[in-house]
């Protein structure tokens, strides 16, 4: 589908006029053509009507390219990445910028494009500022929509840090690793976009120069998002380390308990084994009170060992 918005030199608003007509009309101040999931015939108009370079057109159909900027003789070409809100998967949005037009191209629905489209239809700012303002608005909307998933992950991490009583540590750490994976996915989207905006500001393009303060603001947002990702990843690392520390402490407590029990029963087992060998010439076996004396010796030995362990502080781990 191809839809168009145009503004004439008389500041009149035209909607859904054919692209070829808009290109030929000398009264058109600027126009925006949006290619949304176009058919093969519609997509071919990128070359036939706009005369875009075949390499740029080819890039539109090779999805998941890195965000980039290419300069051609008669137009500028941008590759942007937006996010799907439910899966955090990235979607490609391509932008062509010419003398008095903007062309956006995307192979699936783009809420960011739709939101700016509705604003452009009703806002006077878009009519006055022209095509360059369209490009800024689309990029700004794409970048602003990175914030909600980042804040959502930060809230989830804060909830995990407070520890939900209904969840085990294993469940919580599994959730931490899921969030860590989502953060990595966001990082692969946001960092290349940050690098692209930095390059755009550094190249001093005409469309950037006219709205440099706006693009610098977008770049600042990307820097903040990068810092959020880094801080959240550090938080997940701390949580992972805390979980491993807790597991190690629990294992130490278990091993200490087993060591205490084993140490106490080793001499008792020795005594029981010694008198269980059934030799005939063992005077203690015929003693009247030999059984009780042996039990008493065992009890004294166990008590002495318990006192020794307490004196060494081994029982402090159970506090």
Descriptive account of the structure:
- A hairpin with a 3-residue loop joins β6 and β7.
- α5 crosses α7 and α11 runs antiparallel to α12.
- It is built from twelve helices and seven strands.
- The chain is rod-shaped and about 125 Å long.
- By secondary structure, the chain is α+β, with helices and mostly antiparallel strands.
- A seven-stranded mixed β-sheet has the order 2-1-3-7-6-5-4.
- It starts with a strand and ends in an 8-residue tail after the last helix.
Shape: rod-shaped
Widest beta sheet: strand line-up? 2-1-3-7-6-5-4
Unreliable stretches (pLDDT < 50, length at least 5) are none
Question: What is the arithmetic mean of pLDDT?
Answer: 83
SSE blueprint:
Blueprint: E1 2-8, E2 13-15, H1 19-24, E3 28-36, H2 40-43, H3 45-48, H4 54-61, E4 68-71, E5 76-83, E6 90-97, E7 101-106, H5 111-122, H6 124-129, H7 131-144, H8 147-162, H9 169-203, H10 206-209, H11 212-274, H12 290-311
Record keyword descriptors for this entry.
319 residues, alpha+beta, seven-stranded mixed sheet, rod-shaped
